[in-house]
Structure formats: C-alpha cells, structure tokens
Design brief:
Helices cover 76% and strands 0% of the residues. The protein contains ten helices and no strands.
Length: 250
C-alpha cells in the first residue's frame, strides 16, 4: 500500500537526470546525497498532489491524509535542499519554478495535451539537471551536455505521450496516426542528440541513453495503441537506466 500510495517507481524520472548531471560533470555523488533526498521527497509531493486533485485511484487513505503526507514530504524535501538554496539562489528559483509548474499541471494544465508534456519534463528533468550543472559550468563539455539534455528531453516527451494515451488522458483525443507520428519524430531526434552528445563528450558510457528512443521506435514501427503494458515497460526501463548511472557513480 505504501508503494502504491507514493508511486516510488516514478521517481526515476527526476533521479536519472540528477545522476546524469553528476556523472557528466565528474562530481562526487556523496556531496549530493541531501540534494537527491530532497528531490525524492519533491517527487513524492508531485505524486501525492496528483492523487489529491484527481482521486482516480483506489487508495486506503483519505484526501485529508494525502494532504498531510504532501505537507510532510514538502517539509522534509525543503529542509534537505535548504543548504543548496542558501549557497545558490538560482537553485531556489529553479525549485520554486518547478514547484509552481507541478501545481499548475495538476490543477490546470493536465488537460492540455501538448503543453502538459513540456511542463512535466521541465519540472522533473530539466530543472533538476540545471541545479546540478550551473554551479559546475565547464566550457569544454557545455555543447556536449546541451545535446545530451536535449536528447533526454525528446525521449521524455515521447514517453509522456505514451503514458498519457495508455492512461486515457489528454492526448487520447488525437488520432492514433498523429500520436504515432509525434512519438516517432521525438524519438528519432532524441537518438541524434544523444549520439552527438556522446561523441562530443567522448564517453561511451552515455550510449545507453539511446536504448529508450530506439525501443520506442521499434515498438511503434507499426501502428499500435499504447496500453498499460507499454507504460509499465517504459517505467521498468527508466528505472534500469537510473540504476545504471547509479552504479557508474559509486
């Protein structure tokens, strides 16, 4: 019940981008333990807020209890991140921007099929990456990292579309042919960006990033309607990618 309520399996989306930023910038993961913990709690906050708003899942806890869990998680996350905010005001700005976007997504933007993808990806992938990257600017790797984050951004958008269609949410109103075209385009562009980034950074350990968009291209080589099994497969692969980068760092 705890796993079902907190939906910990979705945390890979934010944690992978943080681990990727730490790895590419040759940083020590031990120095980011509290930062990572803070984002874990913030990710849980997003999951709880979504359930507070939608109430479309059968959970043991009431709405008021979910609100209490949300407030506790927010407090824990904020305290773990406090040191990061004190030393870098940009991190505080990025965090509150991300928090505002998540709130807007849950209460206003979720029904808009295109814009909601960009809101989620910026909130959970781009901003956490930048919070690690900006204090550690390294000119020789700048353009390589730009390509990597763009590649991750693109296949994240494609994954969000698959997720949304399988859940019968906003993107379902579009014809499956159009949805498939968008998914394939974003996945193909993602592969290009990831390959260019890997070449510029001269790091073969980044090649696994292309496995997700390649998998999406293979899956949608024929016209299919995304189902729950496709969403679950994406979550599984995302968690495997997170574990991969974790092993690179420890």
């Amino acid at each position: 019940m705890i796993l079902k309520t907190l939906r910990l399996e979705y945390l890979f989306s934010v944690l992978t981008s943080i681990l990727l930023a730490i790895y590419i910038n040759n940083l020590e993961i031990i120095n980011y333990i509290k930062f990572i913990g803070g984002w874990i709690f913030f990710g849980i906050c997003g999951n709880l807020l979504n359930d507070i708003k939608d109430q479309d899942r059968s959970l043991e806890f009431s709405k008021n209890q979910l609100i209490a869990f949300f407030l506790i998680s927010f407090l824990f996350g904020f305290l773990l991140m406090l040191e990061s905010f004190i030393y870098n005001i940009l991190n505080l700005i990025f965090f509150f921007t991300s928090a505002i976007l998540v709130v807007l997504y849950c209460f206003k933007i979720k029904k808009y099929a295109i814009i909601n993808k960009f809101v989620l990806v910026f909130s959970y992938i781009v901003f956490p990456y930048l919070m690690v990257k900006i204090p550690n600017i390294s000119e020789p790797t700048f353009f390589g990292q730009i390509n990597i984050i763009l590649g991750v951004f693109m296949f994240s958008i494609a994954g969000q579309i698959i997720h949304e269609i399988s859940d019968q949410e906003a993107f379902r109103k579009y014809q499956i042919k159009l949805s498939r075209f968008v998914i394939l385009i974003f996945s193909f562009i993602s592969i290009i960006f990831c390959l260019v980034g890997t070449f510029l950074l001269f790091d073969l350990y980044l090649l696994p990033l292309i496995t997700i968009p390649i998998g999406i291209l293979f899956l949608f080589r024929k016209q299919i309607t995304p189902k729950n099994v496709h969403k679950r497969a994406g979550i599984l692969v995302g968690n495997l990618l997170m574990i991969y980068f974790l092993f690179l760092l420890i």
